[in-house]
Amino acid sequence: MSTVILLNKPYNVLAQFSDHEGRAHLGDYVDVVNVYPAGRLDRDSEGLMVLTDDGALQHKIAHPEHKISKTYWVQVEGEPSETDLAPLGEGLMLKDGLTLPAKWQFGIGGRDIWPRTPPIRVRKSIPDTWLTLSLSEGRNRQVRRMCAHLGFPVLRLIRYRVGSWTLDGLAPGQWRKIS
After folding, report:
1. Has 44 been annotated as catalytic?
2. Which of 5, 24, 8 is nearest to 172 (CA)?
């Protein structure tokens, strides 16, 4: 039977189980042996990580050929309009090629978000906007690059969902085994 763990990775934590530079990493939060991340989440991003000891499942989640959908809550600088964000649904030409179309909506469904330490930079003269963005590919820093391409830099990025799994009920740093 495979072990599958859902972890709400905090901000500023490496998505690996050790670090020679003394930085925070997954091993500081999960004490289960022989599980590995199914995909990456940047140190400056937060949210759901799936850890497993099942190599086939790990490949299915992480490899782009399987197109496992992932949903992100994204706080961007500025106030984009529907017209500004429409290209997300068509695909964007980035330096590494055309992205697949993404699904997006304004807001994050009225959910409360935990405070981040340190907090994001806030500028009184520049508003910010929360978006929900769903992708079926996972290029390096793709959400950040897509939003920047449209002129709305990402201030905070939280992965909410991977496939059918969500971070519901998990505070930052908490994890649970699932069957």
Report:
1. no
2. 8
Domain 1-64+167-179 is in which class? alpha beta
The catalytic residue among 19, 28, 31, 42 is 42
Cis upstream peptide for 80 (omega within 30°) = no
pTM of the entire predicted model: 0.95
Q: Burial of 18 by CB count in 10 Å (0-12 exposed, 13-18 middle, 19+ buried)?
A: exposed
Q: What is the pLDDT of residues 149-169, one digit of tens each?
A: 999 999 999 999 999 999 999
**Positions of CATH 3.30.70.1560 in the chain:** 69-162
Q: What is the spatial distance between Cα 129 and Cα 141, in angstroms, rounded to a whole number? A: 19
What Cα–Cα distance (Å) separates residue 71 from each residue in 51, 93, 118, 129, 146? Answer: 17, 20, 23, 16, 14
The CATH number that domain 69-162 falls under is: 3.30.70.1560
